[in-house]
């Protein structure tokens, strides 16, 4: 009943990825989404504590955390795809002026997002 905060596993990995996003708007949106869990939890009833593994109990903090995790993942996937799209557009434009190996090896590698493989 008193759960009011969630610590992210591999938070540093996620934060590094967010910090590498191209647009400040994306960074702000992701940080707001991550930080929203504290308010969500404070506003959410605990649900049926005798039925913890039943995520269809109609409420509870466990269900709220699951929805929040899905929202965070959806957004980071969306922003990573947009980031990749912008990089591809930039690479195409740069390849008109610079040799392909310079663009691929020196410029794009610098702008790539960190790998987000989470440890299990």
How is this structure best described in words?
By secondary structure, the chain is mainly alpha-helical. 63% of the residues lie in helices and 0% in strands. It has 4 helices and no strands. The protein has helices spanning 11-20, 24-43, 61-94, 100-111. Helix 1 runs antiparallel to helix 2 and helix 2 (24-43) packs antiparallel against helix 3 (61-94). The model has no long low-confidence stretch (mean pLDDT 80).
Biggest beta-sheet profile: none
Percent helix range: 55-70%
Helix tally equals 4
| Category by helix and strand content | mainly alpha
Distance between the termini: 27 Å
H/E element order: HHHH
Which term fits the overall shape? elongated
Question: Which runs of at least 5 residues are low in confidence (pLDDT < 50)?
Answer: none
- Count of extended strands: 0
Write down the Rg: 19 Å
């Amino acid at each position: 009943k008193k759960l009011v905060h969630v610590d992210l596993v591999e938070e540093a990995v996620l934060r590094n990825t967010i910090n590498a996003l191209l647009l400040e708007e994306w960074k702000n949106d992701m940080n707001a989404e991550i930080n929203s869990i504290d308010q969500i939890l404070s506003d959410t009833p605990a649900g049926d504590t005798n039925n913890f593994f039943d995520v269809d109990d109609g409420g509870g903090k466990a269900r709220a955390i699951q929805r929040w995790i899905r929202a965070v993942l959806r957004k980071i996937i969306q922003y990573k795809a947009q980031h990749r799209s912008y990089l591809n557009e930039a690479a195409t434009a740069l390849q008109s002026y610079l040799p392909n190996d310079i663009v691929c090896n020196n410029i794009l590698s610098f702008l790539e997002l960190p790998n987000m493989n989470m440890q299990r």
